[in-house]
What does this fold into?
Amino acid sequence: MLREVLDWLRPGPGKVIADCTLGTGGHAVAILREIGPSGLLIGIDRDSEVIEVARGFLSQAGNPFRLFHSNYAGLGQILQETEIGSSTAGARGLDGLLLDLGVSSYQLGRPERGFSFQCEGPLDMRMDRTSGPTAGELLRRLKEEELARLFWDYGEERWSRRIARAIKTYLRKEPLETTTQLASLIERAVPRGKRRIHPATRVFQALRIAVNRELGGLEAFLSTVYQYLRPGARMVAISFHSLEDRIVKHSFLEGFKGGIYRLLTKKPIRPSQEEVRENPRSRSAKLRAVERI
Ligand SMILES: C[S@@+](CC[C@H](N)C(=O)[O-])C[C@H]1O[C@@H](n2cnc3c(N)ncnc32)[C@H](O)[C@@H]1O
It folds into this structure.
């Protein structure tokens, strides 16, 4: 949703914009071109690997940028380091902030990262490979009921209990180490029938959300981020999951009721049919935008 991001974020010359989910820099490169030599792009990602890919693309644009390997929860610290600071503390603050949530195509396409059930890899799924338990560790550590709850809550998986039971039964006999091992176990555990998506899709999504503590982190971030935005600054968030979108929607609404934000998008903006055709993964994307009052 590159065009839509630029339309709502409005990254003009001289602006200071934070891309808090840099990925491989698709949006960031376009933003960097718009802000020109007098602007500053701050790029943040918790995955050190994608940052290096993005750095390569951004360097070619020639305009100022600084990249940080961090959870976006560390934005306050990063803004202090870059002397942009918090606008509520009298410092400059940001003119724009982008959140393009979820996993990147780059991460999905690396079998060794374990995000995809379509290729053989370890059950890792950590966006930041320097910390936290892997998906495999979660499967071993959580009890059957806890796993079922996780698949239900984060994946809306109707066969959550069956799948959790099958995983725990399997683990009592042998180790569960790879993505394809887990995918075929799930395939065997659920009834055959008409399916639009692979039976492992929802479980993989749920595990990824849990491993990276995506929802709690997003909620906490959105409740404090307003302090870094200067008046007139815009924030754009793209979500891919209904729970994620609900958090964004509620947080923006709370900010609106509290006189912090003007709501720019009453309803979420969806990708064009053309984009969905070219990139089917974009089909569930929802974009929402606010402006700091
Ligand atoms: C959908 S991709 C972003 C793609 C990017 N907009 C582009 O154009 O290439 C999401 C990125 O956000 C990162 N990410 C997810 N949660 C994060 C968090 N809490 N803090 C920092 N980065 C995060 C992921 O590692 C991933 O690279």
Observations:
- Residues 47 and 139 are 22 Å apart (CA to CA).
- Residues 21, 23-27, 44-47, 50, 71-72, 100, 102, 104, 127, 217 surround S-adenosylmethionine (CB under 6 Å).
